[in-house]
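Chain and conformation:
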Amino acid sequence: MSSASHQVRRATLDDLTGLIALWQVARLPALDLEKRLTDFQVVARSDGPLIGAVALRIQGQQGKVHSEAFFHPEQEEKFRPLLWERIQSISRSRGLTRLWTQEDAPFWHQAGFESANDALLKKLPADFRSPHGHWLTLQLRDEAALARSLEKEFEVFKLAQRDDTEGLRRKAHFIKVIAIALAVVFFGAVTAGIVYLIQQSRLARR
């Protein structure tokens, strides 16, 4: 995702120095975030310098949007939607069912995130939990429908396996019948040959 003036992409090692500077400006824990470099999506000017970044941490079929930062606050309104578009694209490609965030900018509410109640918080992956902060969540796919779909696919797979097993059993039985028939024919031919040789031997003695 890019234009003549900027690009939106996954962070690389070449971005680390710029990201550390960005995290320091935003007062984020740079040492901890450095370990999760590949979680970050960045928006950068085409000539190199970073404009901003946000991370998407994935656990199973859920994702956590975190550590959003921009060098200049006036750039947030323009570039935050581009990072969000990038996160949505990744979420779709990975088949995520739900996103979580503790980002508090009004944009995230406008994007569809809602405050998570106690029932929803039970779905929050343990690796995402933090001792403080208010959680927002966004359902991307119907989790119950997905579970039913997976169950149905598993049932279809089991039926296919059963059919394959039955087909192999029938094929093995057919091969066994053919083998027995060939054995009978072979035994009959050998027996007939022996009888013929005995008869010829008796005729020769006369």
